[in-house]
Amino acid sequence: MKDTFRLCRKCGKPVGIINTRPYRSILVDADTVFVHPDPLGETFIRIDGSKMRGKPDTRYDDDREGSEAVWRPHRCKGDDL
Fold first, then answer.
1. Residue 81: pLDDT band by 50, 70, 90 thresholds?
2. Per-residue DSSP letters for 13-62?
């Protein structure tokens, strides 16, 4: 699997490209987010391309089990410029 980081063509922010399946990829923000699973939370993307719902950790010393490093899907605001 080849994952790369580039700059968005519209807004210029760093984005990552994660392959979800053959001939299919998704743009994500370059910064990782640590997230706890929550069925009512936001949608995030794992490194293998699978999706998960969760809520971001708000404290660095949170000791709950199941926290994962994931990425937010890139929502470009380049059209607003």
1. very low
2. -EEEEEEEETTEEEEEEEEEEEEEEEEEEEEEE-TTS-EEEEEE---TT-
